[in-house]
Every structure is written in C-alpha cells, then in structure tokens.
Amino acid sequence: MKLTRVVMADDHSLVLQGIQKLLENDLQIVGTVNDGHELLRVVEQHRPDVILLDISMPLLNGIDACRQLMKSLPKTRVIFLTMYTDLSFVEEAFRAGGAGYILKRSAASEITDAINVVMRGGRYVTRLIPWEHSTTERRYTDANERESEKVTQRQREVLQLVAEGRANKEIAALLHVSEKTIDYHKSRIKRTLQLGSTAELTQFAIKHHIIGLE
Question: Would the N or C end of the chain have less CB density within 10 A of its end CB?
Fold first, then answer.
C-alpha cells in the first residue's frame, strides 16, 4: 500500500525529531524544515500529500506559508500542529486553506487520525478545542479583517521580518531584493497602517498572527 507522503515544519528540531519517530513507520516523511521559506522550497520539490505545519515559524509564518502553498499546490492537505488554542487561530488557519488543526499537547494518535480524515477530504479539529460549540467560523470583527487585508502578501513577509528584529540588509538578502525595495515596502506599510515605530509594527504583527509569542 502506498504510504502518505508528509513534510513537517517546526522551528524546534526536538519537536520534529519526536514527531518523525512517532510517524515514520506508518507514513513516508519526505522532508523536515525549520522555517517558512524553506518549507515553500521543500514542498515544491517533493509535492507531499500532507504538510504538518506550526503556526509560529521564522521568516514566514505558517498561516502565510499555507496561503502561498494553496495557490501552487491546492490539493496538498495542510494540518496545523501548534500550541495556540484560541478559536481565532483555528479560523484563520482554515481561511488560509488548512484542512486540520491539532495541538502539540494532543495525543500522538490524533496526528494519524487527522491525516486519515483530511486525506479523505474532510476537516479535522482536535477534541481539545471546542470547535463544535463555536457559533460561527468568523470570529474576527469586520473591522479587524479589513485592517489586516490592507497589507499585501509581500508586505506581510517584510512586516514579519521587521517584527523579528532583522535589519534591512538581512531582509533584502532573504527576499532576494534590494535594500531600497525593503525601505519602500516599510514606508508603504507604515503609511497604509498609520503606524510610526517598529514597536507599533510588531504589535500589529502579533495582533494579526503574523508573528507568534512562542
């Protein structure tokens, strides 16, 4: 029987090693990565059936990485494996194109349960989150959503790197553009969001789940 092909993404190597050990007899682990940019490269190379993806990832967070992956590989199933229990994270994960959501403190068997469900075309949410009691899958206010949508995908990438404390030169190298281009993006972000300081940009990034608090 053909094994399900899986790529795992988490910025903690010990977490990756532990999950890989649990799954390697039942699934084909074709790649493990520690940041969002590397995930895009590895997924394009291996084209897995399923991605196990943390939300809080350096360089490019899991939710934005999922959005990009769904454009190029819409049939790949993404399961978020994270510490975040708030329903707003679940809802944003699904809006980004995710098919499953489980917690790092979930039982190991839930990972394979989730994979089996999403491979059959279903949606899976861990039993540790009261998703079935949610009255709506859109808990964000319209105002918050409109505010987040003011920022383009590329600007979100720049914003995350700025909020991580990276210098313009490093950001330019990571995104393969000039420092002048990064300056342009930063000024556009500040003007669009009406924010002035790096601290305010960081607060916006946290509020809208562009960077995490792990």
Answer: N
